[in-house]
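Long-time lurker, first post.

We've been arguing in lab meeting about whether zinc ion would sit comfortably in this protein at all. Half the group thinks yes, half thinks no, and nobody has a model to point at. So I'm putting the question to the forum: if I give you the sequence and the SMILES, can you give me back a predicted structure of the complex? Inputs are below. Any interpretation is welcome too.
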Amino acid sequence: MRAAVLTEPGTIEIRLIDRPLPADKVAVTTKAAGICGTDIHAFGGHNPFLTFPRVMGHEIAGTVAAVGSEVTGIRVGERVVGNPYAECATCRTCRRGHPNLCPDLTVTGVHSDGGFAEQAYVSPRQLYSLPLSVDLDTAALVEPLSIGAEAVTNGNVQADDRVVIIGAGPIGLACLAFAVERGATALVVDRIPGRLERARELGAAAVVNTLADDPDDRVKAFTAGVGADVVIEAVGAKETIEAGLRWFGPAGRYVLLGLYDGTVELPTFTAMRLGLRFTASRLNRGRFPECIEYLRTHPHVTSLVTHQIALEDLQDTLTLLTRRELEACKVMVQLH
Ligand SMILES: [Zn+2]
Ligand SMILES: [Zn+2]
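Top reply:
Settle the argument with this. Predicted structure of the protein with zinc ion, as tokens:
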């Protein structure tokens, strides 16, 4: 089968590879696989868990082509989406309901080969069956949606909450989708007009372009001067994390979701005075079923897919995304 192999940082080769299907795995014929921030980081050589050569791609939707000899309960031809995260399921953290924080967690497309190939070999417990009405070309959106569903749950977003979402990339917009679903009113902050337009389409009550407008003023107006009930930071930069820490109100919940490897200033007196609840949201805990159902009942969310590319275009596309020269939301690598 054809596969896009990351041989070293910045270099992808399209290779023909032939591997036997392990007895405990399922071969999934990839229909479409999403490009995620993780892939862009790994392409740049910034993922310490990824070893070379590696087929990236952890957002996978397709059809079961074959099942290993030890696998039961999955049929050839079944339409599936893959949850990339495999926890050990036995450690104390897993047993206490935090599989997303398992110290031995492995990720498809990082620790093992993923979806940027004609077939991916996946553990059956990572596969979820898709209803017929969910289009395989966009079904891989379930994974980024699950990140948003988890963050909104961790922020305990309620109907009538005023929620500020920082960042209108796929993850920020996934948070928006679930915040709106819960009946909250959301303000979305970004600096790219196309992204803010998408936020509007997905139900943001207001948007702020930080290059054109003062977000502090806009958040104040949006929250009638009291501050946000929930702030979700989906960028992962010192500046945006600290901006969000100026925007919460009484009993505010702050959800750190964007990845940032550094330190920030926490306004401790304000945090104390307002009873801030600070949480970091990582991956997801069993959210695939609800996200599949969300995708089935909210087909308009497939507009998050802005580009479809061929496997051969992966190297160029990742290069453009790295340089921020492609204004895209979700890019799908279309395999079949
Ligand atoms: Zn992803
Ligand atoms: Zn574990």
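For your lab meeting: The chain has two domains: 2-144+284-334, 156-280. The longest strand covers residues 26-35. Whichever side wins, do check it experimentally.
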